[in-house]
Amino acid sequence: MQVTINIPENLPEAVIQQQITEFEGKLREQAKLITPIANNKKQKYQAIMNIAKKCSSLPTLDHRTSDEILGYEKSEMGLWGDE
């Protein structure tokens, strides 16, 4: 990634360096926010399992079977179409 910074020509070198250092620090902080939380397979697996546990604890709002919801029971072939 390339970033262009417009710096006035009349600033002292120390001020320019300070501005660059602060900008780099802000970039590092932003990069930490977008870095994936799970860096290895075990952590990813655990994160997925945590999501699955949360989903399984939700109440059932529709008691039809998945086939009924998708409409598969409407045809002899088990597909949508003419009854």
Short description:
The chain is mainly α and 83 residues long. 52% of the residues lie in helices and 0% in strands.
Notable features of this structure?
83 residues, mainly alpha, 3 helices
What does this structure look like?
The structure is a single chain. With 83 residues, this protein is mainly α. It has a domain at 13-56. Helix content is 52%, strand content 0%. It has 3 helices and no strands. It has helices at residues 13-34, 41-56, 66-70. The protein is elongated and about 80 Å long. It starts with 12 loop residues before the first helix and ends in a 13-residue tail after the last helix.
Report strand %: under 5%
Could you tell me the number of beta strands?
Answer: 0
Number of helical runs?
3
By secondary-structure content and strand pairing, the structural class works out as mainly alpha
What share of residues is helical? 40-55%
Shape: elongated
Largest sheet: none
Low-confidence stretches: none
End-to-end C-alpha gap: 57 Å
Task: Outline the fold blueprint.
Blueprint: H1 13-34, H2 41-56, H3 66-70
